[in-house]
Amino acid sequence: MSSISSLSFGNASRASILRIQNALKDATTEAGSLRHADVGRTLGQLTGNAVSYRTQETSIARMLESNKLVTARLELTDDTMESIYKSAETFSAGLITGAATSSGTAALVQNAASNIQQLIGSLNLNVEGQYYMAGTMSDVVPAKDGSADIRTKFQAFLSASGATGVENVDPDKLSDYFGAGWSDGTTTYKFDDLFELEVDANGLESGAWKDNWSNATSDTAQSRISKAETIASSVSANESAFRKVASAYAMISSLGLEKMGEGVRAMVATEATKRLKAGMDEIVALRADVGMRLGRVEASNTALTQQKDVVSAAFQRLEGVDETEAALRLNSLKTQLETAYAVTGKLQGLSLLNYL
């Protein structure tokens, strides 16, 4: 013999409400994310595939974010080189004519000294403690002012050549000093040696540039822009282009140009112009190379975005739920829950006493 009571009805109703609430929770999650609330339970043995796709998407997304930093770094480096080029171009335009007069020479010397400081500041490009042009040692300030060494070495040349000062320097000896070098029979004096950078078989760097002008390494930072491709994401302050520009400025600012005769000043201005032009030409080449690297990053980003879309579509097919179906299910469960609450309320109001 079985019995029916309001208690048993109430228990059944509460169990139904709990079941609907759990289903409603999952439906709400799915309607919001358009993804199965419990991927593992829904997909079963296919869960591993979904996880693999998710991992691939995360990896690609990280690579794309990393490439944004590489792009920003290269663009900032290119902007810096453009600034160095424009300063050199402006200085070069008035170099020959400026050296023709005493007043022009004084202004030229001052501008050259200022340009050296600007060049050093540009090479010391720094973003959040990272020196972009320091090579692989990005935490080290790459460029420093070696003008004092230029003055010291030039005085040594003057003494060895028999000149008591720049006022009576022998033009022929000075021409040799700016060219292949002038020797007193024991020591060879050569201006360009003061900006020389040497690398031995083991990759160790030395020379006057390293000693007096630079703390940078010639090896540059490398960045991976895809699974199979790595590029140089910086330009070193040791590049020949910057050394030549620095040598031109130092030639004007550190050799006592204002004390030289007009003919010697013209020679020095011509030599400085040659070095400045060579440095500017090399900066153009460096900027072209940076432009090519930026193009490679852009191409990599295009390929990575396509891969990401494919992977996203793959796990969406596995994990995703139909938006319309999810909304209908959510509304249906809400209706069921409201009905269950109403029934429970009526059951709680039932009592045998009402019928006695």
Strand and helix layout:
Layout: H1 6-33, H2 39-43, H3 47-93, H4 95-98, H5 102-123, E1 126-127, E2 130-131, H6 147-161, H7 171-178, E3 182-183, E4 188-189, E5 198-199, E6 205-206, H8 208-212, E7 222-224, E8 230-232, H9 240-253, H10 262-319, H11 323-349
Antiparallel strand pairs: 1-2, 3-4, 5-6, 7-8
Please, could you describe this protein's structure?
- This protein has 356 residues and is mainly alpha-helical.
- Among the domains are: 54-140 and 213-309, f41 fragment of flagellin, N-terminal domain (Up-down Bundle), CATH 1.20.1330.10; 323-356.
- The protein contains 11 helices and 8 strands.
- The chain has helices at residues 6-33, 39-43, 47-93, 95-98, 102-123, 147-161, 171-178, 208-212, 240-253, 262-319, 323-349; strands spanning 126-127, 130-131, 182-183, 188-189, 198-199, 205-206, 222-224, 230-232.
- It has a two-stranded antiparallel sheet.
- The longest helix is centred in the C-terminal third of the chain and has 58 residues, at 262-319.
- The radius of gyration is 38 Å and the shape is elongated.
- The two termini are 23 Å apart.
- Belongs to the bacterial flagellin family.
- GO terms for molecular function: structural molecule activity.
- InterPro entries: Flagellin (IPR001492), Flagellin_C (IPR046358), Flagellin_N (IPR001029).
